[in-house]
Amino acid sequence: MVSRILLVMIAAIAVTIFAERRNIQAPLLLALVGLAASFIPGLPRLELEPEIILTVVLPPLLYSAATEFSFISFIRRLPSIINLGVILVLVTTFVVGAVSASIIPGMTLAVATVLAAVVSPPDAVTAVAVGRKLGLPSRMMTVLKGESLINDAAALTLFAFATATVTGRHLFIDNGLLYFIYAVVVGIFIGMVIGAIVHRTRLRMSNASLVTVLSVLVPFAAYLVAEEVGASGVLAVVAAGFSLGHNSTEAGYAARIQERQFWRTADALLEAFVFAYIGLQMKFVIDEATATGFSLIELLGLSLVVLVAVILVRIAWVFGTGFVSRWQTRRVRESIARIKAGEEPPRRFGRRRDGRFERRREMLRQGGYDVPEPFSWQENLVISWTGMRGVVTLAAAAGIPLLTLSGEAFPGRDIIQFVAFAVTIGTLLVQGLTLPWLINRLGISDPAEDKYRAAQHAVARDIADAAGRAAITAFRDGQTDPKARAAAEQMLKRASIEDAAERQSHTEHDTMVLELGRTVLEARRAALVAARDERKLDDEVLREIMEEIDLQQAVLANWEPGRFSG
Description:
The chain has 566 residues and is mostly helical. Helices cover 76% and strands 0% of the residues. The protein is built from 22 helices and no strands. The protein has helices spanning 2-21, 26-37, 50-67, 71-76, 78-103, 109-119, 125-134, 138-167, 176-203, 208-228, 233-246, 253-290, 296-340, 356-365, 377-384, 391-398, 413-442, 447-477, 482-493, 497-504, 510-533, 539-557. Helix 9 runs antiparallel to helix 10 (208-228) and helix 12 (253-290) packs across helix 22. The termini are far apart.
């Protein structure tokens, strides 16, 4: 088994390299190559236990995405993310469940709900890769990435409740709504606690390799602990990732550099393996499903209906809620304009009493009420078309119990697995292949975003320069040695700390200059983080600049005094 996994990973990486060289979407090509390979005569089946996929493959992918994701951006777009990542998953489950029960012979609504829960969560890996390459606006990318972080939790919670209903197994909370609330709240709490403990621990560690090892354990620990108490392991991993990613600025630069590279490598390996594995299963799933008495044509017809239902539900929901969002935004802005003008506010903004109206009006005048711009119809069309299914659908389908508590076979298990795999492959081919064309055709761009990012980078430069100059000035004013003061004055005139260190390294003050350079970079980092916390600086811009500062600190940390002398 191990040798087969290694061979699949080697082949998957080779296909990924080829796809990158040819500018082809690697996940799509991997699935197609795996699908074709599954029909090679005599090829043994590579089948992993669903627990391995859910506990070994899924947690690190979620954790890596969460640590690199802006928590502030996540909160800013939280209504849209919850709409797609939770509510749409529920709607898809109920609608597709009803459709499946009506078209698949002998399938009850409870069993059909299991199928619907399996196919309800999209996997944003392909969509995010396409969007990043084609330059989708960051607010769209935020919603797509945020949706992918929480929709798995909603789908797997529904899946657990639906399978328990069919098998007759009792969950410790039999009420579906209470079980969902418990899974969400406790899962997030466990993730935050683990994140806080690990963060305090890594602040006391100086070995970057051990800090990286510790970060590798976090997603597995968070997932397993949450699942042991019946909570959402997915949300525990996401919460831990958010916590550690947001506070990573307090850790050492060496640990950040090493972790960043490790998780990017791990992402590439796991994603390549997952999509190759999806394709490799198809032929064997067909064999098992046709053994139940259905012909391949019948199975493909049923799968096509479910696929169409899955796609149409997302399109209808995105455009329906988009219309409501634009209507609400217009009403809120009209109300804000009335309040700023001193008019009586509408009932939803409260009445004039106890000075609250005056305080609210003053807050609005100062720009303290942000109304996010709703998506255009072009943006909604792209979001509605990013419904490709992936690893969670694969794992959930494989994780359907074999038997009920009465000892009978789980009804329709092979049919559910076939439809789930067919929907996954279908969305990857239909939506994944056409998504780049659709984005290019619509010409989606946001000129205001480019201006905003340029302005944010200018703000960051000003903050960093001011902090650096303040640190050098404080050092200069505290020196009694004229040569040290002169060296500090010279550093104030340099464009960069690294250039100053290189030019000064042959002087008798080289060690002092290097130490001062490190102090200046720490001052810059602290000032930028403070600006982020005060909402003056965008979190994503901070991450980009922090990566540069980390590399600069690494250069100075390894600089040898006198290296350029003579």
